[in-house]
Amino acid sequence: MNSQSSFFRFLVAGAIALLLFSIAGFYWFFAKSPVGLVTYGSQPGAAIFVSKLSPVMVSLLINPDGLQGLEQKGEISQIKTNLLAKTSINYQEDIKPWLGNEITLAVTSQDIDRDPENGLQTGYLMALATENPAQSREFIELLFSKRSLAGANLAVEQYKGVKLLYDTPETLAPAKIPTALAGAVVDNFVLFANDAKVVREAINNVQAPDLNLTSSPQYEKATQELAKDAVAVAFLNLSEVAKWQGFELAESTYNSQILSLVLNPQGLLAESTFLTSTLTSTDVTPVSASLSQPVGALKYIPASAGLAISGANLSNLADSDLAKLWRQGTATIYGSSAEAISRWIQPLVDVQNDWGLNFREDIFSWVVGEYAIATLTENNTPVTNQGNTTPNWVFVVEKTPQLVAGIARLDKIASSKGLNVSSLTLNQQTVSAWTELTANTEDKSALSVAAKIQGVHTTQGNYEIFTSDLKTMDEVLSSKEKSLIDNPNFQDVIAPIPQLNQGYIYVDWKKSQKFLERQLPLLKLVEVLGKPLFDNLRSLTVSSYSREPGTLKGGVFFQFHRS
């Protein structure tokens, strides 16, 4: 986005900030409010202005003043001030009197003039619902008169019965009015864009319904999956998003995505549905069949876990709906899955390299039953072995006929890396360990051998338990603390998720934040953008619960601290 659209960037950033703050604040509001949940319109009215070829549209379906009671330290007022800092506009006097219950942002086109030879300039449109069109027109006049006084060359045009105001970029005074802006009032919406062409096209889309998003079969199908009473909605045309990012997708399983935010007395559920290119796709299957209850493997995961993943059947992970989404998503954002892995989950690459592992062949292939894996924390800090930066872990696998061959394969890999495979007794339980033996030669008169354990496993009931070290195995076997499945907080966060699902990813934010920030550097940028959310986030739980053919549906449940 060039300097021409930086003014519009302020508007977009402000609206997104309001959306992020609303996520963090809804929990407090509905926990304290004596009234029940408010019902919101679940489909954005501004979709009629947006082209069916638009890459992305995001809508907040509530008036920002409805969030005023959520303020803890004046966050919303600060957002409004920053949003209008360069406009000479007063929110209370100029906007509040007419603003309705919708703010929609859309990327309308990848190149406004469709001439790549003069550079690409993305088209951006903001539509604000108005409860008083006449007053809104007065606001538009005021805004552009102030810009004209500051040095912009004001242009007024009647376009298909709509009064369109805009300033021409070539006459702008860089010090005072560095960017172009166009605006109009159409029906019950105030439109802003970074170019007059964008507003003209928005008007065309209304008057020629076959051009706008509501006429798109993709959008129509996606809205059928929209969660009831959503307070915010985002729609992505995935093939257009890839083009916008400058990538050509080698694999394109999903053509669209719809995301909605749904209020819950315990927090907020962000539910997302990905839709395939065909109505009845049979080659997109979930990792496993739906589970009616949390897997039994979780009873061996300590309640102190900062990060836990559970489900069933990893053997078909590479061909599952999640894998197809991963390949398409990473290609869209980064150009390839390999590039995404190097940026986001390099620790997994390091583990594979250090051990000479191929996760798909050496582990996933024999995990056909239930499984649970977790990293451990103490005093909100990841627990690690001395000299190790990777947190201690627990991996629990349901016993199946494939398990024996799987362990034998790991034993063979360990031996090839110079490790010894041995048995020992721990709490009257026989455990197997992979150890690295080294001779201590500092004292020639008393030579000794030091054993560094690289992994331990043992059988307990119908499960095989793997841990990073003996101490962790001792914690699991001795039951010194409750398991994660017995933790009331864990039960609270999985309750809003549909009972039939493919498992959970549970993150205790306070316990895992430092570790995740170290492993995922881009996370710090996300935290800055969504500061109100992350400042008050207690945990987040991710689950997939697809049931219909040709769709991948899942959600993220955000739990916030009670004030």
Query: What is the beta-strand fraction?
Result: 25-35%
The total of beta strands comes to 21
Stretches where pLDDT falls below 50 for ≥5 residues?
Answer: 1-40, 69-73, 172-178
Give the distance, in angstroms, between the N- and C-terminal Cα atoms. 39 Å
Helix tally? 17
Overall geometry comes to elongated
What is the averaged pLDDT score? Answer: 77
Supply the helix-strand structural class: alpha+beta
Query: What is the CA-atom radius of gyration, in angstroms?
Result: 28 Å
The biggest sheet amounts to: 21 strands, antiparallel
Helix content: 25-40%
Detailed description of the structure:
By secondary structure, the chain is α+β, with helices and mostly antiparallel strands. Helices cover 31% and strands 28% of the residues. It contains 17 helices and 21 strands. The protein has helices at 6-32, 75-83, 91-95, 133-149, 196-207, 217-223, 238-244, 321-333, 337-344, 346-355, 359-362, 401-416, 470-478, 488-494, 509-519, 522-529, 531-535, and strands spanning 56-60, 99-109, 123-130, 154-159, 162-167, 182-186, 189-193, 230-237, 254-264, 267-276, 305-312, 370-378, 381-382, 393-398, 420-426, 429-440, 448-460, 463-467, 504-508, 537-544, 551-560. The protein has a 21-stranded antiparallel β-sheet that branches. Helix 8 crosses helix 9. The longest helix is centred in the N-terminal third of the chain and has 27 residues, at 6-32.
Brief write-up:
This protein is of the alpha+beta class and 563 residues long. The protein has helices at 6-32, 75-83, 91-95, 133-149, 196-207, 217-223, 238-244, 321-333, 337-344, 346-355, 359-362, 401-416, 470-478, 488-494, 509-519, 522-529, 531-535; strands spanning 56-60, 99-109, 123-130, 154-159, 162-167, 182-186, 189-193, 230-237, 254-264, 267-276, 305-312, 370-378, 381-382, 393-398, 420-426, 429-440, 448-460, 463-467, 504-508, 537-544, 551-560.
